[in-house]
């Protein structure tokens, strides 16, 4: 009888123990001793970051290492929200003759994101309402990278430069329907690009933007003669709409923000005050020092720093987002200014306040950088070199609580030949 009572008491006690927190098991990962830069939460200093499951569990100045299954020493490193690259092309495929939509100019995201601290990308209009379902099934659903998208106002997206001129395939109703009713969690805006005519494509895109209540991004650089960007900014676009390739220099087909005397045109400042969002969109042919340097010196700074990632940009002056951020540091941006323009700023532009910060409860998308000191050189698209003394190097990337990039194995156990 006593044995049965003892067994029952032990069972009750065991169940009680199961309800208690397990010491050392509260956190899956703990980043210790890093310098956190989190613009949304105005944090710029030493903080520890704890991750449980796929979310940020705690932020503190000295969290208990005993509570973590894995502790990563981030001393001397910078800990930031996972970067958001707001302008990429990742609808990679093999359609004969295709350009960016299901074509070889686009890239698969996971191969070019985590290694530069990027956890979220926004495909900038590679697909339209006709072929977005293919893009989603083929790329978005299979990627570890979070892939969001701007829907092209042309139904077939960026299949070819010629098809992008087809006004009959610019359908604001179907575009808004695709965004609002079918994929509101993925489609965050509309793209107008590569149009050779007047403002027709822009105006149709803005009409769709009003119907869907999302912003429009405009690539405005292939008009002969060039269309007025003052008119674009102040008469055709709305506050919150985006102008990409901000620092491009191609005066024969694109009006520039800096004039031939090296002065930022006054209406550019006016447009930014109005709420027009200026996106870098570096690309393979859309970033020039002769625009970016004087603009920065005169106090004009793009709202968002992005890459325009595709096969024609990644092996040239652009390289990746960490390299582009380093370019802006070489022009005088602080590290904090650069990080903000690739985290919280784009998150606000695309109306995704769940992204771009390290708040407790947020999904654990984190980048860890080393800032190397030395003598470096940065190229624009015209192969002109600007020297710099600081360069970001991605040490670690965490996506949804999982380590997806570790340059030097700082999250790994030390090898021993006895094990």
What does this structure look like?
The protein is an alpha/beta fold. It folds into 2 domains: 22-80 and 365-406, Urease, subunit C, domain 1; 82-349, Metal-dependent hydrolases (TIM Barrel, Alpha-Beta Barrel). The protein contains 10 helices and 15 strands. Strands 1, 2, 3, 4, 5, 13, 14 and 15 form an 8-stranded mixed sheet that branches. A 7-stranded parallel sheet has the order 6-7-8-9-10-11-12. Strand 7, helix 2 and strand 8 form a beta-alpha-beta unit. Helix 3 (172-182) runs parallel beside helix 4. It starts with a helix and ends in a 13-residue tail after the last strand. Residues 1-24 have low confidence and may be disordered.
Short description:
The chain is 23% helix and 26% strand. The protein has 419 residues and is an alpha/beta fold. It has 2 domains: 22-80 and 365-406, Urease, subunit C, domain 1; 82-349, Alpha-Beta Barrel (TIM Barrel).
